[in-house]
Design goal:
The structure is a single chain. By secondary structure, the chain is α/β, with parallel strands linked by helices. The chain has a single domain, classed as 3-Layer(aba) Sandwich (Rossmann fold). 48% of the residues lie in helices and 27% in strands. It is built from four helices and four strands, in the order βαβαβαβα. It has helices at residues 13-29, 46-54, 75-94, 112-129, and strands at 2-9, 32-40, 61-69, 98-107. Strands 2-1-3-4 form a four-stranded parallel beta sheet, with helices on both faces. β1 (2-9), α1 (13-29) and β2 (32-40) form a beta-alpha-beta unit. α1 (13-29) runs parallel beside α4 (112-129) and α2 (46-54) runs parallel beside α3.
């Protein structure tokens, strides 16, 4: 079974733990095994943790899960854009898929729960569909 890593932002840990359950279920349905779950403080730390997993020969891809909530400034938007760019660069640099399951930026608190499952599953589907 192909091994996939998860990188999870812990700022909204209770919600992201639900995402982990959905991601694990989707991985199993796609013949993948979640072999490592790495918790990071927030989305900005996701690229480094992702790089460390992608360096490993036994990991075929990584899915990143987290939430960037809407704030009073554009800080979340800036962080979101930087994180996505970094994750794309890692995907291309390692030639291994990275699934993006980070909700936001700009998500309102009342929108989070209904987005947990589709974002988590989509991140795993992205990894599964790009395995060479």
């Amino acid at each position: 079974m192909s091994r996939v890593g998860l990188v999870c932002g812990s700022f909204h840990k209770e919600s992201v733990e639900k995402m982990v359950l959905h991601a694990t279920d989707e991985a199993r349905a796609n013949g993948l095994e979640i072999s490592d779950i790495v918790w990071v403080p927030g989305s900005v730390e996701a690229p480094l943790a992702t790089a460390r997993l992608l360096e490993r020969d036994d990991i075929i891809g990584v899915a990143c899960l987290g939430i960037i909530e809407k704030g009073e400034t554009d800080h979340g938007l800036v962080i979101g854009q930087a994180v996505v760019k970094s994750l794309i660069d890692l995907q291309l640099g390692y030639d291994k898929p990275v699934g993006l399951g980070i909700i936001g930026p700009g998500v309102e608190p009342e929108q989070i729960n209904r987005r947990l499952e589709p974002h988590a599953r989509s991140a795993i589907i992205a990894v599964s569909s790009m395995i060479v």
